[in-house]
Amino acid sequence: MRIVELRSDTFTMPTEEMLEAIKNAELGNDGYREDPTVNKLEDMAAEMMGKEDALLVTSGTQGNLVSLLAHTNPGEEVILGRYSHIFMYEVGSLAFFAGLMANTLDDRSGHLRAEEVKDAIRPRSIYFPRTSLVCIEDTHMMAGGIIVKPEEIKEIRDVTEAHNLKLHMDGARIFNAAVALGVDVKQFTRHVDSVMFCLSKGLSCPIGSIVAGDSEFIEKARRFRLMAGGGMRQAGIIAAPGIIALEKMIGRLREDHENARVLAEGLSKIEGIRIDLEKVQTNIVLADISSLGVETDSFIKALYSRGVRTESLEKGKVRMVTHRGVTREDIEYAIRVFQEVVDESKKKNAEPKG
Q1: 3-class SS letters over 115-163
Q2: May I ask the CATH architecture of the domain 13-249?
Q3: What pTM was estimated for this model as a whole?
Q4: I need a surface site. Which of 176, 212, 225, 263 has the fewest CB within 10 A?
């Protein structure tokens, strides 16, 4: 049976070149900042992001956490989306570890509005927590890989600068955004104080993320990385595939976007499945199956039994993420399986009850 893994782009496997690079990496002790491969990756990443410095971290969640810690003090408030990854899927670390209050805005569309951010900033008062940070997400996962365009980020940046706040970007898939718009990633990152991006999603590395910002920020983040158990030694074995990812894997994200578009268009032709094609901008497809009258979990299990692996982040929605491990033939197979499961569901619903 064909297996089509669409649950996440974290299922990407390292390339043979990456595995060889791991085997042959020049190593040192990163705890002493003496791993030459790590240093090379961090320098590359800083330059690509248009920032002074960068830091290799074990995961995107750790990268966002050390960024929040480096920008804030306990008891302060961070403005972010209530559907953002930091708020929904990072185990409450902003409260547990950073001691921050979350002031959440409606970002179901994938966007934070600059005017709403401005209105959410606390006035200075002895009674209120101090607003110190705003976080944005690009691309926005829960909205289906929606791109927050550079001009939108600048509008928020104008607000944060006017109120002396920091602006952090959860840019786990920021290269997807840059490739989709055909612009340099610096067009996005130039407007933020710090950015985190993942090496282990569409870029196909087995582990690792990067945090970038100015040198003072990175020095603080490095300290918090160690505090969070992220100090590493011969970390060149992680950095080596990261270097290849930045050199060779960014451009091929277009293929993932094309496959996502083919998948979305194919599924949209199936009666009972609704897809907003305007929102299929990168490598994530959200299919609304609520009109079918079936349990979401049952629908996903039926797909899984036929080799098509998807997941649901909310009732009535099936999420699919394309990546290097998914071919055009896989996409065509997945569309056929969806049709089979929809037909099966309709037939079952039409059977007399009792």
Answers
A1: HHHHHHCCCCCCCCCCEEEEEEECCECCCCCECCCHHHHHHHHHHHHHC
A2: 3-Layer(aba) Sandwich (3.40)
A3: 0.96
A4: 225
